[in-house]
From TrEMBL:
SS bonds (residue pairs): C3-C13, C24-C33, C62-C71, C78-C88, C99-C108, C115-C125, C136-C145, C221-C231, C242-C251, C258-C268, C279-C288, C316-C325, C332-C342, C353-C362, C369-C379, C390-C399, C406-C416, C427-C436, C443-C453, C464-C473, C480-C490, C501-C510, C517-C527, C538-C547, C554-C564, C575-C584, C591-C601, C612-C621, C628-C638, C649-C658
A molecular function (GO) term: calcium ion binding
Keywords for the protein's UniProt record, in alphabetical order: Disulfide bond, EGF-like domain, Repeat
Presence of the UniProt keyword Membrane in the record: no
Protein name according to UniProt: EGF-like domain-containing protein
Taxonomic source organism: Branchiostoma floridae (Florida lancelet)
Annotated transmembrane regions: none
Amino acid sequence: DECVEKPCQHGRCVNKDGGYKCTCSPGWTGQNCQQDIDECAMGNICKHGTCVNKDGGYKCTCSPGWTGQDCQLDINECTWNPCQHGRCVNKPGGYKCTCSPGWTGQNCQQDIDECRGNPCQHGTCKNNNGGYKCTCSPGWTGRNCQQDIDECTMKNICRHGACENNNGGYRLEFIVSCTKLLQSKVQRQLAFITWRWDFKMQWESNNPPNRFLCSKNINECTRNPCQHGPCVNKDGGYTCPCSPGWTGQNCQQDINECTRNPCQHGRCVNGKGFYICRCYHGWAGLNCQQDINECTRKPCRYGRYVNKDVGYKCTCLPGWTGQNCQQDINECTRNPSQHGSCVKKDGGYKCTCSPGWTGQNCNHDIDECTRNPCQHGRCVNKDGGYKCTCSPGWTGQHCQNDIDECTRNPCQHGHCENKDGGYKCTCSPGWIGRNCQQVIDNCARNPCQHGRCVTKHGGFHCTCSPGWTGQNCQQDIDECTRNPCQHGRCVNKDGGYKCTCSPGWTGLSCDQDINECTRNPCRLGRCWNKDGGYQCTCSPGWTGQNCQQDINECAKNPCQHGRCVNTVGGYKCTCSPGWTGQNCQQDIDECAGNPCQHGRCVNNDGGYKCTCSPGWTGRNCLQDIDKCSRNPCQHGSCVSKNGRYKCTCSPGWTGKNCQQDINECIRKPCQNG
């Protein structure tokens, strides 16, 4: 039974007729399970990482953003809430932050200093977290102090005349058509006298009229001046109570409600007289102020759920993983069964142990000797089994079979009777001894020098031992004359001869080939017995007569793009950045991960290069070029977005860069002037 000597180094031994067979543990191969399988050479086993071979297995070192035994599971970084002021979008092997207005940086942690672009056209700018605030100069208003205050809309500023608004102030100009009583002979004369009065209430003319007949009020509401609201006539003017979302003297100006950031967790879209909040994931309500409790729909299949701002988090039960605890962990991939086979179960696993082993992971040896299996012998416990050392006269796996000693005829001159654990000889007349081998006669004086004495009719007869002859077996026979040593040299001895065998041969006559392979001379290879010797077929990476010499594979430079390290029985390549494969011969296509966020990726040997789209820069084209930094908008505010810019012109200006003055007189706004 070859299995007694435990030839299988990393596996289970099964005895066969005339030999044995090793069933290797996972990760091992070879006749005796002595050779480690290099799983890393089987291809791209680590999908998103580097593979390191281990004795009986392998280990994956995952690239950032990946996890799992084979680096096949993408890490959802968004569950950590990395985006401090923005919305997180998970990507394969990473994530991307879409920042709220006023914030920038990889994790939206950096406040944008909007004041550097001088947004306040007629005032001073103060930077705030996530925005800015303008303190306007007198006569100006609006988020960026770009809107002139129409003082003329203020109540009763020009009590009996027309007000002309100016940038940052106003001017009083009125034309009064009155009837002046002249001190002449003409009883009446209509006169039209014009004078001007500026906002300091000083007359330009030194001769104001004596009296006026301007008592009739004009009803301005008849021409419907209020565009988005009802008109209320006033003495000398009118006023417009604007509908929600509108402002201005005539309710003609839409209020941008988004400037006050009403959407707490979302993006604001301004409309004509209204606004809409487009909420981020996990939020609801008119102003995105209400957190959606995702836990009400029980998303975690096998785990406990906790509601979070902007989502929820699942704490999975043992044996489950995934964002919603929906993915069963295959525990069998880490080979928990040390001496048995692993069967995957939902949320766990079960080990079917090999004979002689027990425990959850088949790691506890069963002591079979506690149940006394050896009936007539001594029990010795072994890893995964036991061995019986039988008492004399017994045999069998459990020492349960009595040996019939009579089959080998121990009683030379008598009758043999088998007994449990032994035998008994009943001797024929004239014989004595345990095996009836002793004659009672003249042979008691031992006449035969080198042989056996047999009493014959009152005498004796010598049966000489091999190598002797003569009446009393006193003469030595020279056996070397017949050349008994087939593969060696013969030396005659008293009563025999001795063969000095040539190397590789043994036996009394040097006729038996020595099987040198039984002592395992080939340290790391397979042994083939030959007549008078043996031959070793070495495992890969070894050489020498007994495969004891490690081959330095690095001498032939197998690593095409990396550094070679010779190991016992093989070698290992440490690849340069951008290369992979057993011999670092395979270029890593970095473009497969789409590193160029706003551009085109070109793979190069050992790296990649991004050709950025217009308006973008940086190694991975993720840095937006701020087009507003050179102040292209001459009379308006600039907004940089997606590699471009857009000008919002101040009133009275137009053109791509707000450089063209609008001639308002074309549409004849002055009805009576």
